Amino acid sequence: MPPTRLTAPWADPIISGPDPLEPTTLGAPAWNAKGTRVSPKGLRIGVPTRFYVDDLEPEIASALDATIATLRKLGAKISKVELPDQALVSAAALIVLAVEATSVHAPWLRTRAADYGPQVRNRLQNGLAYSAVEYLEALRWRGPALAAHLDAIADIDVVIAPTSRSVAPTIAATDLGGMPEAEAAIQAITRFMRPMNFLGLPSLVVPGQARA
Q1: Rounded to 10 degrees, what is the CA torsion of 20, 22, 23, 29?
Q2: Farthest CA pair distance, the chain
Q3: Which one, of 148, 154, 165, 155, lies nearest residue 86 by Cα?
């Protein structure tokens, strides 16, 4: 969840620079190999005190601890950071996500709903449960929420946190069709990612591994 640029030696040059098929990449800088070798020495890294570190599976907690230990060994300055209530940000993100996804798919949900699998169809129909007032209130709150977040991380360069509280699940564990448990399973996987999406903060996800 970095608020500033964080380069890494494993970054892929294949995905650098502008893509002629993606207008939003227009003007993107070319691959800078030298920039990926910048030392993290002196980098101020914040570790959240809650939400992103609550109820982690042992493998995830171990991988996070190992990553922090490595960064500290390389000279990074590690400190705790108290972020605004991320559960509230996540809840607002769910409203925006649900409504906008349903809006995009609305024409096909009306005319060819059977073409959607039950799990996807049920998730899209969640957007129908929110009113226009709730959607607009969530959007209006984004500015104040972002301002509070930026204020909380004013003294650090980057925040490090798990992307998920659990290890990557199997397809069978998440392909639950129209079962009531399906929504909870998906939300559990994406919970830590929603606040950054809602706030529009740049983020980078990299693989991690617990120490043997």
Answers
A1: -70
A2: 58
A3: 148
Contact 47, 158 (CB under 8 A): no
pLDDT of residue 11: 44
Q: Average pLDDT of 10-21?
A: 68
**List of domains in the chain:** 41-199 (3.90.1300.10)
- Rounded distance between C-alpha atoms, residue 200 and residue 197, angstroms: 5
CA distance 151 to 83: 9
pLDDT digits (tens, 9 = 90+) for 60-101: 999 999 999 999 999 999 999 999 999 999 999 999 999 999
